[in-house]
Amino acid sequence: MLTEEEKWKAALECDASxxxxxxxGVKTTGIFCRPSCKSKSPKRENVEFFDTAEQxxxxxxxxxxxxxxxLLEFHPQKETAEKIKVVYDLYYSDQxxxxxxxxxxxxxRNRILQVFQNQYEKTPAEYLNGLRVASAKKLLASTAxxxxxxxxxxGFESLSAFYTQFKRITGVSPRxxxxxxxGKKAD
Length: 187
Known about the structure:
By secondary structure, the chain is of the alpha+beta class. It has helices at residues 4-12, 53-58, 76-91, 95-104, 109-120, 124-142, 147-153, 159-170, 174-182, and strands spanning 23-26, 31-33, 47-50, 62-63.
């Protein structure tokens, strides 16, 4: 059993390892939080500790909107990264729409990079290039479109970027890939 001082120390340090073991309520704001909550630290005299979220609710407190102690699993970084990934998956081939949809998320470019890389261990550019090359591989194998058309349809803004990324990811040029896959020499 944790002492009140141990709980207070964990709350001050925003220690996530204590999440679910106790909750703290702030009398002056009427909210209760997880120990890991990043909100401004309250004054000690305004804090009350609870073993469960239900006890805090019964005491008349409402859950914090920042740390969401009312949810069993709340991972804002993961949820944000998943939203970013959905935008990439849907709009990788349309640069303008991609930028527009990312803007709607309300995050800076640096924040998008940080959140995405922390979750998926690759940069957004690496992920997008992978999606675009996968799309190009399908088009090379299934259409007679020329390589420039395929590059543009796959979301690359230039032929040189397409060739560079395609060869880096597949180990062969787009022309070689098409020849190997279809068995036909490209014109």
